[in-house]
Fold this protein.
Amino acid sequence: MASTCAAVLVSGCSAGGQEGNSPFASPSSTSEIRKPRLTDLSARPDVIFDPCMDIPDDALRAAGLEPSTRSFEDVSSSDRTFLICAYRPGPRGMYVNIGSSNSTYDEYVAKESESELHEYDIDGRRAVTKHVGSRGGNCILTVETSYGTLGVTRDLFDSELPREQSCDGIDDMARIFLSHLPEGA
């Protein structure tokens, strides 16, 4: 089940999101940690950052996303939780999933060990990118957090980018989201 959940985070597939496309109140301050919408039965930490609730609309727009296309695509199993927020293509023609999970960075890197990974640092956090597919436009970025990982999957539809450029700019997008993590995350 764990690899299936991780694949959902990586592939951007829906697993029957809990709340669909329903509207909700504005995201709360990131200094406030709310009770998670989903938890699992493991001893893993709770997922304390909810990408559908904790990233303000102005930050989403700064990242090139349209807040009105937000959909919940969460997954919770007995051994881990994934809070996933998906954004349909907007004016820039990109589909983005932002996933917050209590799976660890090391688990992700080990699971993807057969893939071509590029490990580095984003503002003092371990990070890794993975190019998806044979042509450009698809990239996965996974960043370590105190509770697990924050992942950004970006698909640029109809992109003719060379494969080696498919992750260009995803760091800047992730920094916008990372700036809204709760203190200590």
About this structure: The first helix runs from residue 2 to 11.
